[in-house]
Amino acid sequence: MHEPGIGDEEEGAQPLRGPLGQGLYTLCKAFAIGGGLLFVLLVLMSLISIVGRKLASMPIPGDIEIMQMGTAVASAAMLAYCEMMRHHLRVDFFTAKLSAKNKNRLDALSHLLLALFSVLIAWRTTVAAVSLHEAGEKSMMLLLPVWPAVALLVPSFVLLAAAGFYNMSHHWKLSVQNEVTV
Amino acid sequence: MSGMQIGLIMFAVLMVLLALRVHIGIAMFMIGACGFVIMNEYSLMPLLYSLKNLAYARFSNYDLAVIPLFMLMGQFATNGGLSHSLFTCVNNFVGHFRGGVAMAAVGACAAFGAICGSSLATAATMGQVALPELKRYNYSGSLATGALAAGGTLGIMIPPSVPLVIYAVLTQESIGKLFMAAIIPGLLAMLGYMLVIRIVVTLKPEAGPAGARVPLATSLRSLLGVTPILLVFVVVIVGIYDGWANPTEAASIGAAACGILAVVTGGMRLEGVVKSLVSTAEATAMIFLVLLGADMLNSGLAVTQMPAELAQWVQTSGLPPLSVIFAILLIYIFLGCVMDSLSMILLTIPIFYPIVMGLDFWGMPVEDKSVWFGILALMVVEIGLVHPPVGMNIYIINKIAKDVPVMETFKGVLPFLASDLIRTILLVFFPIISLYLVHTFGG
What we know:
The complex is a heterodimer.
Chain A: H1 9-12, H2 19-56, H3 63-84, H4 100-135, H5 147-151, H6 153-181
Chain B: H1 3-19, H2 24-39, H3 45-59, H4 66-79, H5 82-94, H6 100-113, H7 119-136, H8 141-152, H9 154-157, H10 162-171, H11 175-203, H12 216-242, H13 247-264, H14 270-304, H15 306-316, H16 321-335, H17 341-358, H18 366-383, H19 392-401, H20 406-429, H21 432-440
Helix pairs in contact in B: 1-2, 1-14, 1-15, 2-14, 3-14, 4-13, 4-14, 5-6, 5-12, 6-7, 6-8, 6-11, 7-8, 7-19, 8-11, 8-19, 8-20, 10-17, 10-18, 11-12, 11-18, 11-20, 11-21, 12-13, 14-17, 15-17, 16-18, 17-18, 18-20, 19-20
């Protein structure tokens, strides 16, 4: 299991960012903390539900549904921060001996792919939310409309895409700079 | 081209993408999507249609909610300084033996592993607590760092364990059963590591001198101090297994309990809470991005029928089941050279699981076989954390130790690897080690 912030030598220290990068970083971190807080709320809901069920045979109705919707929204909100820190998992064993320039080129490409993936998912998830809205799909227990939970994933994937594009340009600039200095 | 061929090509291209530093989740996604399109006669529409649901369906999976909750629990334990009281307590009891402080480090890792589902977090927090003590007693650098790097793996071997949750979700296995089954092998791992320390200090007494003896009253008082932590473990595991709480609820209880303990006994304040949330976010994001990719890869592979055909082929090939299982374990050890444990599980279980289920091992019924293989897979993917060249635990401990050369740590970890290998072989030949608790406590 990988854990954040440790053991990632080459990218451990955060590079200086311009105002754009700093703003993006702050936004991503806010999303991450927001996701974490949502999980704390879900924990509380779970506890109340268990206690209610055990003591009074009165669980929170639809607690499973709330947990599902909450988990989806909260965990998606966490993705962008991890990308901003460049901690998403990858294999760097085979490229360990490459020159910094070539590594930066490959990294620019990999972050571009990640960004394109996020754009694709954001687009398809938007389409899903719209069609769920039109169909008026409701959850089984609480009869809550499903589309808002789906729609709330979209900003997280847009932010993930933004972080990916930012990292791509960062690595691309580095690879060009290296060319000048070498 | 047959589905089997396409499936094999997919894997080959995947390996190339991974080698070129493409993020693991993204590479899996791309390959899965390509396979899906090819198998649907190069039509994009089925792919676009299935993508609509990909993110929400995966992220709203009720069982997977366990992962961020266990992460949160472990982070509260880490930032609340619970590792400190655990180490002190174990050290009070075993520290005065020769090599005792290192044994205490391993024991404390095991105890911390009982409330934390991650190896690296266990290695990192225990390293910070135990390394200064080991240094104070003049333990050799290789023994101190080796014991902690190996001890860190107890974080995932002793439940709760994130790789087991993933295995359970992939194979429709019960999380509670798997957690129950992991307890004895996890304790066995701890005892094995302690035995290794014992052997090392018998051969080289100067490597691990005895620590100070502590009055029994002090020891017992420190035991009282950590009782709540152990209670959390018991509630979580028994809750899941007994069925009065499902895994997600049990993880919620655990997270809440660790959060309260961290605030009350560990003095965690707002800063610690924010740190816990941010670290949880990062660890969760890493896993969930790979999960998304693995989902697509598995849909792509499923339409090629490759996993089923491969399993069929192995079954009819007349290969002895034991050599198949050892080949699988070897593949894990090699993959562990370049990949993290979670990506390995996500990548391989859809292929290996049907193969293993189709073979006969001592006439084990299917439900036993599935639990047994889960524990085996957990044990071998964990080995990747402590062997070169990736060995994440080694680097983490080495970074904390500062004055120990990394080669010393690699050398120090070798005897512990030997114990891992012996334990893995025992688990292959004696499935009862994993299955005993499952059989004893329930249907």
